[in-house]
Design a protein that fits this description.
The complex is a heterodimer.
Chain A: E1 4-7, E2 10-13, E3 19-25, E4 31-37, E5 44-50, E6 53-56, E7 64-67, E8 73-78, E9 87-94, E10 102-103, E11 107-111
Parallel strand pairs in A: 2-11
Antiparallel strand pairs in A: 1-3, 3-8, 4-5, 4-9, 5-6, 7-8, 9-10, 9-11
Chain B: E1 3-6, E2 11-14, E3 19-21, E4 23-26, E5 32-38, E6 44-50, E7 56-59, E8 62-65, E9 75-77, E10 86-93, E11 103-104, E12 108-113
Parallel strand pairs in B: 2-12
Antiparallel strand pairs in B: 1-4, 3-9, 5-6, 5-10, 7-8, 8-9, 10-11, 10-12
Classes of the chains: A mainly beta, B mainly beta.
Chain lengths: 112, 114
């Protein structure tokens, strides 16, 4: 089945230790998104790619970076995680012109 | 900017009770409206959508009607089940610009008890 897969599902890191979360998709969608969802809050868009074009949200901290080496894969890098970065990170994909996003199951990050 | 406001939870209901979760929005033009559901430990899944005024989205017994005059998209189900326990998010995408970018409400947790 075509889907969006996120790895790892659970990640524990230490304060300041870099973390990379991955997202892969078999849907061949042009657009990929990264959302941050903190406990009991709405998912917040960090950035998205339209093909290789990177679009950062204005309030996304510099601590968060992303890479999209090809259509299928997208990575979220957190350079120096703080306690406030503990959250669920959601990857989503969409076709250009379609208004429905397909989400992965999420990666839950814990910062000790 | 665009925003979505949902009723706060948790909402606790007995099985077979009627469900309403209120959602109102602020947006320019004619946004598309969505309900997403998040089951425990999982990502978000599209539940239903409506793309123009007076459209009714429906799925799995849930339905919501796009009301432009009241800028609302309330979620309803006639008879809930324990398996409906989840967090429900109302969301919108703008009509023009912003591509597929979703703006979410804060979510409403639903607990259904036997």
């Amino acid at each position: 089945d075509a889907m969006v897969i996120q790895n790892p599902r659970y990640q524990v890191t230490q304060f300041g230790k870099p973390v990379t979360l991955s997202c892969s998709q078999t849907l061949n969608h042009n657009v990929m998104y990264w959302y941050q969802q903190k406990s009991s809050q709405a998912p917040k868009l960090l950035f998205h790619y339209y093909d290789k074009d990177f679009n950062n949200e204005a309030d996304t901290p510099d601590n968060f970076q992303s890479r999209r080496p090809n259509t299928s894969f997208c990575f979220l890098d957190i350079r120096s995680p703080g306690l406030g970065d503990a959250a669920m990170y959601l990857c989503a994909t969409a076709s250009v012109g379609a208004n429905v996003l397909t989400f992965g199951a999420g990666s839950r990050l814990t910062v000790l | 900017g665009d925003s979505v406001t949902q009723m706060e939870g948790p909402v606790t209901l007995s099985e077979e009770a009627f469900l309403t979760i209120n959602c109102t929005y602020t947006a320019t033009g004619y946004p598309s409206l969505f309900w997403y559901v998040q089951y425990p430990g999982e990502g978000l899944q599209l539940l239903l959508k409506a793309t123009k005024a007076d459209d009714k989205g429906s799925n799995k017994g849930f339905e919501a009607t796009y009301r432009k005059e009241t800028t609302s998209f309330h979620l309803e189900k006639g008879s809930v089940q324990v398996s409906d326990s989840a967090v429900y998010f109302c969301a919108l995408t703008p009509f023009t610009g912003g591509g597929n970018k979703l703006t979410f409400g804060t979510g409403t947790q639903l607990k259904v008890e036997l």
